[in-house]
Amino acid sequence: MRSILRTAVVAVAALGTTVLGTPAAGAAEEPTAERRSATAPSPTGQSPVGYDVSHPQCGQTLPDDAAFAVIGVNGGIATTENPCLADQWEWANDSSGAVPAQPRAQLYVNTANPGEVRGQVTTWPRLGVNRYGVCDGDNSAACSYEYGVDRAENDVRIVLDTLGEASPGAGDIAVDSRADLVGLRWWLDVETMNTWQSDGAAAQRNNRATLEGMTDHLESVGGRVGLYSTGYQWGEIVGEVPSWSSLHGLDSWLAGARSLSGAVANCSDDPLVGGGRVIMTQYVEDDLDHDHSCVAAALSAPSTAAPSTTAPSTTAPAAPAPTSAAATSAGASG
């Protein structure tokens, strides 16, 4: 992703983080899905390359050989809008669809958790009840979860308000109503450049709760959710994900490569969470994000059960709210 540089709670390490969409990736595990080689053409003979674009590409001429495209909903941080979303969505609709595993037009959203600096933002929730308990405005897992739900609700609103007015060339991926959200692929962009909690295991639990809130809401409207990051950044922000979490089993889109061959190799890296697959990798070429599909066959859709608002099972402790750590940045996104 093309994230704008800003102050952050989590420090950015020199070799493991995203810099203009070029982070390093993690360790290896062979996904079970069918692979596509670096040079293999699509079944139609068309280019198999995908692209992801957002607000930094506003006004630029975009490639005409896209097999699929991923469009940023936000303007670099989780509370903003991409001013070119409608135009870029129309461009994505014109993708060839040459890679059956990848929908021609997909979306990604920025994510964050400003709970440690909640006094510096206006978007931190003050009420709500969910699987982690009652949110009362404190820096807790319950409020972190509500923050994620709020961000996802806002992303859905942006998409419906903006893309409902667009006129894509392929009506089957128009987004005119909530019914059109069913089956839409959303990627959660998880990077250390955004504001995250940083005080150990409790902070990682809260960060995970935010992403769970986003996932649960997007799946409740029929979305297919995946995770974009690198193994390093995911480990810093989220850490291990328990099997009861709604993040468990989500597919991964891994950043970090600087060439197509590197992107192909990264298809063998570990997925970000257990039960998931690496289905796409990113590489940067000519200062533009390119995407390689690690799978060739179409993927089945996950279930879209409504998010749980009850306490987790005994394997998922609803721990008390952690003590808020002092902010390590002058400002915060959120």
Describe the structure.
There is one protein chain. The chain is of the alpha/beta class and 334 residues long. 20% of the residues lie in helices and 16% in strands. It contains 5 helices and 10 strands; from the N terminus they run E-E-H-E-E-E-H-E-H-E-H-E-H-E-E. The strands form 2 sheets. Strands 1-2-3-6-7-8-9-10 form an 8-stranded mixed β-barrel, surrounded by 4 helices. Strands 4-5 form a two-stranded antiparallel sheet. Strand 6, helix 3 and strand 7 form a beta-alpha-beta unit. The model is unreliable at 2-39 and 301-333 (pLDDT under 50).
Instruction: Give the radius of gyration.
Output: 19 Å
- Listing every helix as H and every strand as E from the N terminus to the C terminus, the arrangement reads EEHEEEHEHEHEHEE
Could you describe the largest sheet, including whether it forms a barrel? 8 strands, mixed, barrel
State which percent range the strand residues make up: 15-25%
First CA to last CA: what distance? Answer: 18 Å
Q: So how many helices? A: 5
Instruction: Return the structural class.
Output: alpha/beta
Total strand segments: 10
Low-confidence stretches: 2-39, 301-333
Helix fraction, binned, reads: 10-25%
Strand order of the largest sheet: 1-2-3-6-7-8-9-10
The dominant shape is globular
**Overall mean pLDDT score?**
81
List the helices and strands and how they pair.
Layout: E1 50-53, E2 68-72, H1 85-93, E3 105-110, E4 128-130, E5 133-135, H2 141-163, E6 185-189, H3 200-220, E7 224-229, H4 231-237, E8 251-257, H5 260-266, E9 278-285, E10 288-293
Parallel strand pairs: 1-2, 2-3, 3-6, 6-7, 7-8, 8-9
Antiparallel strand pairs: 1-10, 4-5, 9-10
Helix pairs in contact: 2-3
